[in-house]
Every structure is written in C-alpha cells, then in structure tokens.
Design a protein that fits this description.
alpha/beta, Serine Threonine Protein Phosphatase 5, Tetratricopeptide repeat, six-stranded mixed sheet, DNA-binding
Length: about 525
DNA sequence: ATGACGTTGGAGCG
DNA sequence: CGCTCCAACGTCAT
C-alpha cells in the first residue's frame, strides 16, 4: 500500500501512533508537512521566532526520518489542494495524520477527508496529542466538559490511566514513493526543509530570529530528562511558588515542545510517574501532574465549547463591554502594550520577553493579561490572545483561549477584586529588578528603589541612570490604583448585567414550552 | 441556606 | 514571613 503521513502536530518519532499506523500498513510512504501561506507564513499571525522554531523542529524531524531511509517533504499551499495533488502524484490509497481538535483544524480536516473519500483514499486520524480521548471524556461526563478543576479531576479518575507512550519505529521506514510535481502558484515543494530566509517574500528573515530556545525532539527529550532527574524538585514542584522573574525558566519550559508535539505528553506523564515513585510529592492542581491536567482540561473545553475563540456566542464566556481596536485610544494602547512601550516596566519587560524569546513564565502572562483586560486597559481578551498566539513558541489554541478567559474573569475564574499590580507583583520575587534590567535594558541603571516606578525617580537621578522619563522611556499613561479601582466597578456592573441576563434567559426558557403549546393549540 | 473553597492579589500590621 | 482584612465573585458539599 502506498501512503501519505501528514505531519501537523506530533513532530516526533517517539510515541507517534499515527505514524506507526502508516508504517505498519504501507510498503511506500511519503512524509509531508504543509505550510499554509495564510496561516504559518502570515506575519500577522506567526512571528519570525515562531516560524523559525517550527522550521527547525521540522529540520530535526527530517534528520531522524533520513536516518530511517525516508525524509520529510515540506510543501507550501492550501492543505486540501496539496494533499489532493500528492495523492494523485503518488497514487496513494492511505492518508494518516494525528487528530487535531481546534475548530479551524477540525473544519480543515473534514474538508480534506471528504475529498479523500471521493478519491477512494482511506483516512486514519489517530489520537496522540492529549493524554485522553476527548470524546471518551465527554461521554464519561454526560456530554459536557468540566469547567472546574475539581470536577475535571473526578472525571479523569473515572477515565483511568492514560495510554503508555509507544516506541519510535524500530526498523527502516517504507521508502518514499515516486513524486512528480510541477511547482505552481498553488503548490510549492521543497527538496530540503526550508530556512526562515526562504520566506523573505512573506516578510520573514533569519536576522529577526532572536529566541534562544532550541528546537526538536532530541532537545525536548533532553530537557525533559534533565528536569525529571531532579527528583526533589519534581516531588516538591508547586506552580504558584515558582518565580516569574527568574532569568532562566523556573518551570520545565517544555511547553514549546509539547505544543507542536515534538514531545509527547504521554511520555512526560509516565516519566513523571516514574520520578514520583517511592516519594511523597505535591498534588494537582499545583503539582507537575496538575499542569498536565490543566492542559487536558483546556483542550477538552476548547474542543467542546462553541465559539470558544471569541466572546460573542460563547456559552461559557461572560459578556463584558470591552474596548476593541475600533476605539482609537484602545488601539494605541494595544500597540504600546504589544511593543513594550506602555510605561510600566514590569509589563514592558514581560512583553519584551514575549517578543524576543517567545516564552514567559505563567505568572508573567497573568500579570500582563490582567493588565490588558480587567486590570487596566479594559481591552478585549481576544486582542491579547492574538498577540500571544503570534509570538509564543508554545502557542496552543485551547490553552491560550482558556487562559485569557481566566485572566479576564470571563470564565473559570471570577474573583475580579483580586487584581495584579504592575508595580508590586514582581517585587515579591525580584526586589532589585534583575528581570526588568535584562528585558528592558533602558532601565539597566535605574536604582532598585525606582525600577518598578521610574516616574517617581528624581530627574537628576534619571539623568545619571541614562533614562529620562518621557524621552528614553515613556511615562505611564495613567495611575494604576485609580484605574484598576474604576475597572473593578465596571466588572461589578458587567457581572450584575450577566446575572440579570442569565435570569431572564432562564425565565424565558421556563416559559417556552407553554408558548409552544399555546401556538400548537 | 450556609459556609468552605478556589493553582498564583494587595495593603497593612506585627 | 505570616497574619488579617479588603469587599465580595461562583461552585460545590453539606
């Protein structure tokens, strides 16, 4: 049988059930990755760092495939068109891929698989990106996801242990089939995995790559094993106790690998169980196991909630009258926020780390997400979500949307009177401002006393520090305490309004059957 | 109904 | 560093 294995997530050889399915069934197998020019090669949606990380991951994958007598073919084009052309060219009768659950990916895959059906091509869509089968979890829970961690833990307990990771293919892979394709405007096939600079026409260039993260499956496993070898650190890990201002990640920093599947979450889960063995250890939700459960819960909610990627029409999302980019002031603030020029050093440092590294600590994300939405700027979480999605190496549709719901008090978390302060929050873990100095070098010489509020620094000292406010670094556009208090009042109003709306909807629902009956009669 | 709790707040006290 | 209070959310167990 001639087959095509379509890599999307699951960019690895280990624990890759979809790839194994292809290898076991095929005498000839084409391994392909498709770059969609509207998605992966779109500067508005994917930063240079993120595309570089993807391409370098693909390069590592290609090396491994070549060691097994195969290789990775990288194409540019619309996925349904590319797959159709590849099937025609290779005369393949099997298409395999790892199943994805993001709504846009579900739509794409439905389109592709219905096309394959018409061509008489068998499609194997295999699970591998999460610990559990989302449909199985939904069924166990009566058809709906769990919106709180406690309930989710109960659900997971019912589901039993997640599958053990599978080994990488032991033998040589089936050789690639003959491929005769003419490059066209709609389809470009690369002989080798492309570099960032191959996409200059899309605005990408290797000189814009600034992240120090290293890509690929080997790096992922090495990082994981190095962390899991620290048995005490693993056993005592409590997420809220880790530091957002540490100069090196204080957490595992495995998320970039987990999000594109160069690391299997099942490999990590079972490695973690092994590291826990014979030790008392921290528990979910704060433990490392808990972090995997949060990921799983976000994926299940994102998969099963209509319109989870926006506020309107989203049944779990509180409707809040946020400002959008249509508001001129909001748009200006949004741009400053994205580019680290808002005037609060902690916020700007976090956003600079996001743009240069493509990763920040979870609590740093909390601080800046709270600031953008309910805390200070009162801007829609959807706008912040898009900025994070563009720059984060670990961008994960479900988790990103879930977290923005959480931080904006739109769902899952409701204590809007608990608000992060851009001046105070980082002082706890970084009183001297080492993190600020690293990610916001213009404040490098600012005295520790003023590092989080340089506008309080006497002008003479600003000059000595080489950072004059309003010239070298912006003055903050408002007073945080005043604005955050005003915003809390707005939140109170929005909560009241949504309670009222919920009560009205309930009443209407109660009245509905009667109305229908009345109509019938 | 009521109270405890919720992965990760801040301010002010000792 | 640990405690209480702030003004007060939704969820869940009792």
């Amino acid at each position: 049988m001639i087959g095509i294995h379509w890599f999307r997530f699951g960019l690895r050889m280990h624990d890759n059930p979809a790839l194994l399915s292809a290898v076991n069934k095929c005498t000839s197998l084409l391994n392909v990755y498709i770059l969609n020019p509207d998605v992966e090669l779109n500067q508005d949606r994917v930063s240079d760092n993120r595309l570089w990380f993807l391409l370098d991951t693909l390069r590592c994958l290609d090396v491994k495939l070549r060691e097994k007598g195969s290789q990775l073919h990288v194409c540019v084009g619309q996925p349904d068109h590319v797959i159709t052309q590849l099937v025609k060219s290779t005369k393949a009768t099997l298409l395999t891929y790892e199943r994805q659950t993001e709504p846009h990916n579900v739509v794409r895959d439905e389109k592709v698989s219905s096309g394959m059906k018409e061509m008489g091509v068998q499609v194997d869509a295999v699970l591998g990106h999460t610990l559990f089968d989302p449909d199985k979890l939904l069924k166990l829970n009566g058809g709906s996801p769990s919106l709180a961690m406690k309930g989710f833990q109960t659900l997971v307990a019912k589901a039993g242990a997640p599958p053990k990771p599978q080994d990488a293919p032991a033998d040589k892979l089936p050789p690639p089939p003959q491929l005769t394709l003419e490059n066209s405007d709609e389809l470009k096939l690369f002989k080798e995995v492309p570099e960032l600079s191959d996409f200059k026409e899309h605005g990408y260039d290797i000189v814009n790559k600034t992240t120090s993260f290293k890509a690929g499956e080997d790096q992922a496993i090495e990082t994981m094993e190095a962390f899991l070898a620290q048995k005490k650190r693993v056993a005592t890990f409590e997420k809220p106790q880790t530091s957002p201002t540490s100069l090196e990640p204080d957490t595992t920093a495995l998320s970039p690998y987990m999000s594109n599947g160069s690391l299997s979450c099942r490999l990590f889960y079972w490695g973690l169980m092994e590291a826990y063995k014979g030790r008392s250890h921290s528990q979910p939700p704060v433990s490392l196991e808990g972090q995997l459960l949060w990921r799983e819960m976000a994926h299940l909610i994102g998969y099963s909630t209509p319109n989870f990627g926006r506020m309107e029409g989203n049944p779990v999302c509180r409707q809040i009258p946020w400002r959008t980019a249509d508001d001129k002031d909001a748009k200006q603030m949004l741009d400053k926020w994205e580019n680290g020029q808002i005037g609060f050093p902690a916020i700007d440092a976090v956003m600079n780390q996001l743009r240069t590294e493509g990763w920040m600590h979870h609590l740093a994300r909390h601080l800046t997400a709270c600031f953008l939405t309910r805390g200070d700027l009162w801007i829609t979480w959807e706008a912040g979500r898009d900025v994070f999605e563009k720059y984060l190496l670990d961008a994960d549709w479900h988790i990103n949307n879930f977290s923005w719901h959480w931080l904006s008090c739109s769902a899952f978390f409701h204590q809007y009177f608990r608000c992060y302060s851009p001046v105070v929050f980082f002082k706890k873990t970084d009183p001297t401002g080492a993190y600020i100095r690293k990610h916001l070098p213009v404040l490098h010489k600012m005295p520790a006393k003023y590092i989080y509020e340089p506008w309080e620094c006497p002008v003479a000292n600003q000059q000595t520090a080489g950072c004059v406010l309003g010239k070298d670094y912006p003055k903050p556009p408002f007073n945080h305490s005043t604005v955050s208090k005003e915003n809390m009042n707005k939140m109170k109003a929005a909560f009241d309004a949504s309670k009222k709306a919920a009560a009205a909807a309930k009443e209407q629902k109660a009245g509905e059957p009667k109305a229908k009956k009345a109509k019938k009669n």
